[in-house]
Amino acid sequence: MTRGEAVDVLIVGAGPAGSSLALRLARAGCRVRLVDRAVFPRFKPCGEFISPECLPILDDLGALEPLLDAGAHRVEGMRLFGWGQRAHGCYGRVARGSGGDHWGLGLRREVFDRILLDRARARRGVEFAEGVRIGHLLRDGRGRVVGAAGTDRSGREVEFRARFTVGADGVRSRVVRDLGLARPTRWLRRHALVARYEGVPPLDTGEVHLFDSGYFAGCSVDQGLFTLNLVMASRSLQGSDLDSILDSRAADHPSLGPRLARARRVEPVRAIGPLAFSTTRQVVPGAALVGDACGYVDPMTGEGISFALRGAEILAGELVRALAEVEVPGPRELAAYPHLRRKEIGFRLRQARGLQRGVAHPWLARAVLTLLARRPALVDLLVERTGGVAPPRAVRGPWPWLRALAVR
Asked: Which pairing describes strands 295-297 and 276-279: parallel, antiparallel, or unpaired?
């Protein structure tokens, strides 16, 4: 058994939420140990879209310039296709005087995650261990979480002790399972098939191609590649060849097929899912959850990374304060974190659930897309609300929608 020196915070998971949290905590003087089961750089099935609201956060973390230097593709809006209809919305049209960058980025996750992780590792106070599989959490005599145990890359048993532990390990979170906090969302049993292509003409927007039983989401990324996700009911994938499903459905789709006519898939198809679950709590004595580990609904329009970065920013502020007050923070000391997270992200998660419910009813999805095709101002409002930088007053409540509906 190898035991690491006790630190202030142990973070399980070195994706966007975990790495950015580690960096923020270290800036505040905390000693942080960051662990991940993967060896970086690693592939992560994802839409690989970074929405405009992420850019100021990434700039604050010192990561924006490296992302641009890595060749991130500029994304200025969203195109929606389906049933012979198309709609196009752009970031920044709703509130042109709001400031900020009115564009997002398309970048492979192995590049994006590595840049964020490198920023965290370069900060004094952060230790990183990769290839570590966490098996269970450690608890003291009062039941409080005091770290985690697992195995390292060589198969040796390891223990990591900390005053506080954070589960940032995504939709299959080991921390969530150990704490018994998972609550499946049974109405939305969907998986995503993910692959990249070369030879797809780049667009300055993301793409959503709807069909009766699901949708494709695509985005041009660095290296001249195009990332494609097929999202559909999990039962449709059981016992099937994933490569054949994605290839055939993409080729047969009336709006996507022509886009891929001269393209070549450059890697095997990978699956991820189910794409929905929630948690009963996000804070327990000695531990908290952040990012997708808190709960997940496929946002469809690409806000997933922003949820992770903003949640980590909120948790960092509350955790630094709590660690200065008590030895082992718990729900009382961190009561503001779930509240602030719901206030910041909750309406967006409800919006994602609404979009997913709408896609599950093709007649409704067709009607909405037909309306959007006839009212471009509605599409601008939709993409700004789901990932832009307009102030809340410009995109929330009924009046912005009624005004946009009146614009022909």
From this structure: antiparallel
Integer Cα distance of 22 and 4 in angstroms: 17
- Decide if 191 contacts 232 (C-beta within 8 A): yes
| Whole-number Å distance between alpha carbons of 209 and 198 | 19
pLDDT by 10-residue block (mean), the chain, 408 residues: 80 97 98 96 90 94 97 95 94 69 91 97 96 96 96 94 97 94 77 94 94 92 96 78 92 95 94 82 97 80 84 97 96 96 78 73 88 92 82 81 83
Report helix, strand and coil shares of the chain as percent, to nearest 5: 40, 30, 35
Given a contact cutoff of 8 angstroms between Cβ atoms, the answer to whether 370 and 336 are in contact is: no
Specify the 3-state DSSP secondary structure of 63: coil
Question: Pick from 198, 214, 168: which is nearest to 19 by CA?
Answer: 168
Question: What is the predicted pLDDT for the residue at 334?
Answer: 97
Measured on CA atoms in the order 307, 310, 312, 315, is the torsion positive or negative? negative
Residue 157 token pair: 């048993």
3-class secondary-structure state, position 384: helix
Residue 211 tokens, joined: 């069909």
- CA-based torsion, 18, 23, 28, 34: positive or negative: positive
Cα–Cα distance measured from residue 396 to residue 379, given in angstroms and rounded to the nearest whole number: 14
Whether the CB-CB separation of 256 and 233 falls below 8 Å is answered with: no
Task: List, as own/partner pairs, every contact residues 294-298 make where C-beta atoms lie below 8 angstroms and the sequence separation is at least 24, other chains included.
Answer: 294/341, 295/183, 295/349, 296/171, 297/185, 297/188, 297/349, 297/352, 297/353, 297/356, 298/190, 298/192, 298/231, 298/352, 298/356
How far apart are the C-alpha atoms of 164 and 30, rounded to whole Å? 11
pTM of the model: 0.93
Strand pairing report for 270-272 and 214-220: unpaired
